[in-house]
Write a structure and sequence with these properties.
Ribosomal Protein L25, Chain P; six-stranded mixed β-barrel; RNA Polymerase Alpha Subunit, Chain A, domain 2; four-stranded mixed sheet; 193 residues
């Protein structure tokens, strides 16, 4: 998993008034929980831009007033009207305790069904996995080369060593849908053989 360096400052005061003041100053209120701790801190909007505006999942090296912590982003909250980042929850991780994260899904290869006139559709952009952070890859890569016309790829077809898939087994990841032209293309291919 990729790492991301982030500096934070412990919050001196909590509550609505202090939170509004933090946001007005261009800071985002955050909380780090897990491992028996709960630390309230702030980060600057600019510092977290590359962390939250990406499909990637990162292991975050948090430096909160000189204290080092390893964490993953557990949840982000957004202001509904302006779509501004409102709050970030970080979950502390350790080498011996499993963590659950969402990983981006990337499709590779040229599906056989597309060559037959079908259309490749990616149904899942992210999937949840659970495991030790040292075993979690940067992303989930699915090779769709053998995916024929009308065929589908489901969560149960994905096997990653030392990780547990958390999504339902029958959830669609990718499929090749038939198009109007695919029926004619398949018939033409059959007559050529």
């Amino acid at each position: 998993m990729k790492t991301f360096e982030l500096k934070g400052t412990k919050r001196a005061a909590l509550g609505k008034k202090a939170t509004k003041a933090d946001r007005a100053a261009g800071n985002i209120p955050c909380v780090l929980y897990g491992n028996g701790q709960n630390i309230d801190f702030t980060v600057t909007t600019e510092d977290v831009r590359k962390l939250v505006y990406t499909p990637e999942t990162y292991l975050v090296n948090l430096d909160i007033d000189g204290e080092q912590h390893l964490a993953v982003v557990q949840e982000t909250q957004w202001a509904p009207v302006k779509e501004l980042l409102f709050h970030i929850d970080f979950l502390a991780v350790t080498a011996d305790k499993p963590v659950q994260v969402s990983l981006p899904v990337y499709l590779t290869g040229h599906a056989a069904g597309v060559k037959a006139g079908g259309k490749l559709v990616q149904n899942a952009r992210k999937l949840k996995v659970k495991g030790l952070y040292t075993n979690i890859p940067e992303n989930i890569t699915v090779d769709v080369t053998t995916l024929g016309l009308g065929k589908r790829y489901q969560v149960e077809d994905i096997k990653i060593e030392n990780l547990q898939m958390m999504n339902p087994k029958d959830m669609l990841v990718a499929q090749v849908r038939a198009t109007r032209n695919s029926g004619a293309a398949a018939a033409a291919a059959a007559t050529e053989e």
